Amino acid sequence: MTDLATALTAVYGPEIQPQIRRYQAGLAAFRERFGPGPVTVFRAPGRVNLIGEHTDYNDGYVLPLALDKDVLLFARPRPDSTIHLHNLEPRFPPRAFPLATAIPPAPAGDWSNYVRGAAQELARRLGLELPGLDVLVDGRPPHGVPRGAGLSSSSALTVASAVALAYFGGWRWDGDTMAQLCSQAEWYVGTRGGIMDQYIALQARRDHALFLDCRPLPGGSFRSRPVPLPPGHRLLVVDSGVRHQNTRNEFNRRVAACRAGVALLRRAHPGIGHLRDVEAVDWSRLEPLLPEVITPAELQALGHPLEDLPNVPPDAPLRVRACCRHVWHENRRVLATVAALERGEMAEVGRLLREAHASGRDDYQVTTPELDTLVALAMEVEGVVGARFTGAGWGGCIVVLVRLEAVAQFLATVPERYRAQTGRSATVFPCRAGPGAGLVGTF
Ligand code: NG1
After folding, report:
1. Cβ-based burial of 432 (10 A; exposed 0-12, middle 13-18, buried ≥19)
2. Please, what is the average pLDDT of the chain?
3. Which pLDDT belongs to residue 128?
4. Shortest CA distance to 26 belongs to which of 93, 73, 96, 91?
5. Residue 234 near residue 406 (C-beta atoms within 8 A)
6. Which of 159, 218, 252, 265 has its CB 3.0 to 4.6 Å from that of 44, i.e. a possible disulfide?
7. Which is the closest atom of ligand 1 to the Cα of 150?
8. Which of the four CATH numbers 2.60.40.2340, 3.30.230.10, 3.30.1330.10, 3.40.1260.10 does domain 4-231+433-442 have?
């Protein structure tokens, strides 16, 4: 048995009173539902990405950090091989499914699919004798990860589930292998995302962002490096309050546009596998090789079928040139941001963040009017270094880098002006870079 206060101090630092109450409530709810006895607790954080959007599935660069908000998973092995799921939020109803190497999905949008994906992937890849589990999940505010806000609450649930199953299955995982497994697990829900969210959830370091090269090295590991956050500054996450449903199709269309670009560039650059592989070729030489728009059917006729991309119909217009333009430049921006942060050149960091937002808005077309408004309002505050949308887009949050002394002015003006302009309320939370996912202890 672990001492709760000691375990929580190791994870959250000295201010643990609210966390003690949160964990105690979770433990009590678990025992009320599943009976007395020891309970093992796991956690996984959400993330905010400073820069490098829609680059991870193109084998590119990203610069995320883990939030100090997390999903808690309370678990205890069962004598059979089923997973019984309970969630402290009533809008996520109880679920149960048997462990297997092919687990049937619940209907699209069902919360249990993230746990199913993780369970299926562990059963498949590791061939473990996984025990069944009773599970209780707590992702409630204010300490949980906001849902659907581009802060990777889904990856946090996937990662926490995988870590719990691996623990009870006796697998001593390494972070790179586990991140790849969890990234694959999220394909279970249909999106074809990259490795950023799961990697940072697992490998985050307190007070640091993580520069990650999403191209796996020959042995399957990844190159990453902690980047300290600039002293005298604060990162703010501002939730626009806009949530878009069914972004899966739009997401996969962007993935399709990038893959189409690679297929077409291969005619002049044989052997390339990702946009990343032409990073040294000047964009002005690549752009003429790409059409503005092409459909999957036209690509197929050219001998380049797009495979394994759910919900991308043959006549979907793929904006190949603009999407590739975003990715090619965004990769450069990540490298330049890391260099500028390390040299303390904050004006340059700010310029890159603003440019990244404009590129997501104009080329990748994933922002919303509300996100654009929030970024514009943020930039009006003196002392704001830069601001941009964060995560996939289509609503959710912006991230703002601001000088410490300007935070009060930001809080006093931006939400009010946002409400005046859009009629919506924005939630601002200062963000501390927290540690990565793992076992908290048995209580
Ligand atoms: P969010 O914001 O969590 O939907 C998605 C992808 C990332 C990355 C970003 C865009 C998943 C699980 N996450 O994140 O891999 O591609 O969009 O940069 O697919």
Report:
1. middle
2. 95
3. 63
4. 73
5. no
6. 159
7. 2
8. 3.30.230.10
Please check whether residue 397 is in contact with residue 47, taking contact to mean a CB–CB distance below 8 angstroms.
Answer: no
User: Where along the chain do its domains lie?
Assistant: 4-231+433-442
Question: From the alpha carbon of 193, which atom of ligand 1 is closest?
Answer: 19
CA distance 106 to 116: 9
DSSP code for 195: S
SS3 174: coil
Residues whose beta carbon lies within 6 Å of some atom of ligand 1:
53-54, 56-57, 150, 152, 155, 186, 191, 193-194, 196-197, 391-392
Supply the pLDDT for residue 20.
Answer: 97
DSSP 37: S
Token pair in block for residue 99: 């462990």
pLDDT at 184: 93
Q: Which residues of the chain fall short of a pLDDT of 50?
A: none
Residue 110 appears among annotated catalytic residues? no
> Which residue from 215, 216, 184 is spatially nearest to 198, judged by alpha carbons?
184
User: Who contacts 324 (Cβ-Cβ below 8 Å, separation ≥6)?
Assistant: 257, 258, 261, 265, 275, 286, 290
Q: Where are the beta strands (DSSP E) in 157-279?
A: 208-213, 223-228, 233-243
pLDDT at residue 381, as a whole number = 98
CB 363 within 8 A of CB 261: no
Residue 388 has phi, psi (to 5 degrees) of -160, 165
Contacts of 103 (CB under 8 A, 6+ apart): 97, 116, 119, 120, 123
Give the Å distances, CA to CA, from 216 to 154, 179, 194, 413.
23, 11, 11, 44
* H or E element, residue 90: none
